[in-house]
């Protein structure tokens, strides 16, 4: 493991990835906290556990947080693959910092803006994260294709 961690970009990727996992867990915990506080549960058995009759309908705030979490799953999980292979290309340190930290900041801001219903901020944060991820994909493909020839 020491040889792997000698790659500074890979080490930074690990740190950023763990921060993003914590962020996703925090959004999930927030969803649960809202559900419990508002007594709006996901399934009939959750209502039964609370001794409450099943209710239909959704809470708009809970659904907003769930959509923010779903968006994380759609964007952060691919980042784990893309970022890992990007880090293996041994990019310049500044490029790794900008792309990894920039992506993490964009995703944190996206969640905040999504949950607080802040447009166009949410779209700007989403676009920034997508562009940074796209740069990593193209960079990595170029390095892999050049290395194969």
What's a concise summary of this model?
The protein has a single domain, classed as Membrane associated eicosanoid/glutathione metabolism-like domain (Four Helix Bundle (Hemerythrin (Met), subunit A), Up-down Bundle), CATH 1.20.120. The protein contains six helices and no strands. The chain has helices spanning 2-5, 8-38, 44-49, 60-88, 93-115, 121-148.
Keywords:
mainly alpha; Four Helix Bundle (Hemerythrin (Met), subunit A)
Overview of the structural elements:
The protein has 149 residues and is mostly helical. It has a single domain, classed as Four Helix Bundle (Hemerythrin (Met), subunit A). Helix content is 81%, strand content 0%. The chain contains 6 helices and no strands. The chain has helices spanning 2-5, 8-38, 44-49, 60-88, 93-115, 121-148. α2 (8-38) packs antiparallel against α4 (60-88), α2 (8-38) runs parallel beside α5 and α4 (60-88) packs parallel to α6. The chain starts with a helix and ends with a helix.
> How far apart are the termini?
29 Å
Element pattern in H and E: HHHHHH
Mean of pLDDT = 94
Spans of 5+ residues with little confidence (pLDDT < 50)?
none
CATH H-tier superfamily: Membrane associated eicosanoid/glutathione metabolism-like domain
- Largest sheet, strands/sense/barrel: none
Q: Return the domain count.
A: 1
Shape from CA axes? Answer: elongated
């Amino acid at each position: 493991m020491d040889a792997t961690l000698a790659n500074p970009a890979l080490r930074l990727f690990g740190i950023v990835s763990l921060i993003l996992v914590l962020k996703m867990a925090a959004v999930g915990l927030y969803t649960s906290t809202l559900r419990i506080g508002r007594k709006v549960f996901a399934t009939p058995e959750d209502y039964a556990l609370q001794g409450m009759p099943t209710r239909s309908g959704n809470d708009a705030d809970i659904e907003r947080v769930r959509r923010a979490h779903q968006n994380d799953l759609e964007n952060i999980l691919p980042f784990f693959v893309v970022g890992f292979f990007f880090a293996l290309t041994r990019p310049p340190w500044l490029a790794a910092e900008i792309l990894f930290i920039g992506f993490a900041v964009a995703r944190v801001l996206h969640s905040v803006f999504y949950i607080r219903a802040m447009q166009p901020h949410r779209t700007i944060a989403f676009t920034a994260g997508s562009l940074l991820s796209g740069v990593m994909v193209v960079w990595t493909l170029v390095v892999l294709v050049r290395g194969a020839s």
